[in-house]
Amino acid sequence: MPARWKNDKPMSRLAFDARFSDEEACSHYLAEHRWPEGFVCPSCGTCKGWPLKRNRATWECAGCARQTSVTAGTVMHSSHLPLRIWFLAAHIITSHSNGMSALQLQAQLGLGSYKTAWLLLQKLRRSMVNPDRNPLKDLVEIDETEIPFRSRHDPEDRPKGGRSPVGKMFVVCAVELSRDGHPRRIRMKHIPDGASKTLHGFIGQAVEPGAHVITDGWLGYENPPANTHEAKVVSGKKAHDILHWVHRVFSNLKTWAKGVFHGLRKCHLQRYLDEFVFRWNRRRHMRSAFDTLLGIGVGIGPATYRDFVEQRA
């Protein structure tokens, strides 16, 4: 992953412990982010309420007396984990520039169950995608790559030479460039193929209409509906010489995946890509990554273990 800015370091563990010393501090933080203009009852719309004395994470409406948890309808919905565990997990994940596996997170949090750590990590990864994020603009490099994967049924002692059960996953990436040619933001998506319909669909989702798109000579990129397009033919030159930044990002992705997770599983590839994109786009804003992660989590709604497991099918 890209190096962090020295003047934008994340909170230290001491600072975290001081800021979120107990459940009440965490509840207060969530209430402020869920209702930045003040409490609003989700049932009747009354703008007056108060936290219960016996449980500061639950608010009671002054109008209809309905009680609402600060975690209801959020990524933390119906979780049996203390809020401080959620907050500590978010702090650990955003403080480590390279991230960590569920097994490492389990050890860091002292959780007895790997399943609990895995689900917690999946939910926080889901919170790394802001549904209202702005598309890439101005000048955008786009290319695709192949990443090897192993399924759950692949033998661990497969032969290294010759044919193997290792498959390939296709990933498309877009890199937004500044006017002086430096990278700003990125988007990534797991795609089934390099067909024109697939690539144009990605461009339509990730890139602002009117942006100037630069690709290699692959025909699948020709004539995107809402963008000007510049195809750079790479015959005689390697693609990474022509599309420098998008291939630098691919190189970082593969190094990151191998170093942290020892390879990627196909069933959850998009979640890994989402985490990588989150980290890259906040490489210069590490201090705010914690607030961003929990802020998105407050607004995206709940997900269950079954939701994540069914993605393996």
Automatic annotation (TrEMBL):
ISXO2-like transposase domain ranges (all copies): 135-281
InterPro entries the UniProt entry points to: Tnp_ISXO2-like, Transposase_Zn_ribbon
Q: Name one Pfam family in it.
A: Zn_ribbon_IS1595
> What domain of life?
Bacteria
**Name of the protein in its database record:** Putative IS1595 family protein
